[in-house]
Amino acid sequence: MHIQPYLFFNGNCEEAFKFYEKALGGKINELHRYKDMPPQEGGDDNGCGPMTPEQKAKFDESIMHVNLTVDGQMMLMGSDSPQDEGTVRGLSISIGIDDVEKGRKVFEALSEGGEVKMPFQETFWAKGFGMCTDKFGVPWMVNAGDKPSP
């Protein structure tokens, strides 16, 4: 079983995933726009209802699906949500990294332009741990260099 976060954005999904690609040292493998999607049965509004030409042009360039891998493993998926997906409370994406210095660099990259909730520092369970919310509003926890349990 694999569990991967799927993030919904309000028009800035591509910008966010380019940021994650750089911050995490990953690679965007797949990126599809809504304009690439075949028309839906019963009309071509793709399930979003009537739109002005300006709304349709913006929607067409939005991201329907994107995925990012890090170290050869699927890490994140996402899209621009044409409809309000609501808000999830109590969510944070947790990353486990063996190397403490790499963990520090990832934490610093993710927190750039965002908000540090807990600075990256040694804890009783890890040689390095920090919590931040990135500039897109996504919360992260970075664990690096696990300590053995007593």
UniProtKB/TrEMBL annotation:
InterPro entries for the chain: Glyas_Bleomycin-R_OHBP_Dase, Glyas_Fos-R_dOase_dom, PhnB-like
Gene3D superfamilies (alphabetical): 2,3-Dihydroxybiphenyl 1,2-Dioxygenase, domain 1 (3.10.180.10)
Domain Glyoxalase/fosfomycin resistance/dioxygenase: 3-142
Segments crossing the lipid bilayer: none
Signal peptide range: none
Pfam families (alphabetical): Glyoxalase (PF00903)
SUPFAM superfamilies, sorted: Glyoxalase/Bleomycin resistance protein/Dihydroxybiphenyl dioxygenase
Annotated protein name in UniProt: VOC family protein
Organism encoding this protein: Luteibacter jiangsuensis
